[in-house]
Design brief:
alpha+beta, 6-stranded mixed sheet, 6 helices, 6 strands, 53% helix, elongated
Amino acid sequence: MGRIAETMKLKGLGQVEPKVEQMLNEIAMLKKQISSLQNEMFTLKANELSSNVKAGSKVNYLVQRFDGVDGKALKDIVSTLKGTCENIVVFLASADEDKITFVAGADKAAIANGFKCGDLVKEAALMTGGKGGGRPDLAQAGGKDLSKLEEALEFITNKLA
């Protein structure tokens, strides 16, 4: 009886590999669907936020806080918002349990007016005990001191206004 049970177990092992492959294909498909839904969500959020764009003395700007959103999502939102109007700087921040993520984006007109995203995120990061930087048109940085986040956002808002 032991040999029969052993033989049955071995036959079942042959079905494991196709089942694992099927599950991996399903996971890949679900990841694509999630990514597509996230992009739609970011586009909707960006469209909603575009009504909050303010006119500064040199540029149009938006400074916004989104808690619990990762850097990639912030970049997606910033990229979408950059296309909503001309001469714009978008500065987003997200606070998580123990870290802050800053992402800024600017179009060519805003850069020509002297605004560089790398400098903006670097200043906010330094104020919150972090570091980072990037290109003039898109940059990301991180901070650690959540108690300084509102002060950093206010500083960036005043700089853009």
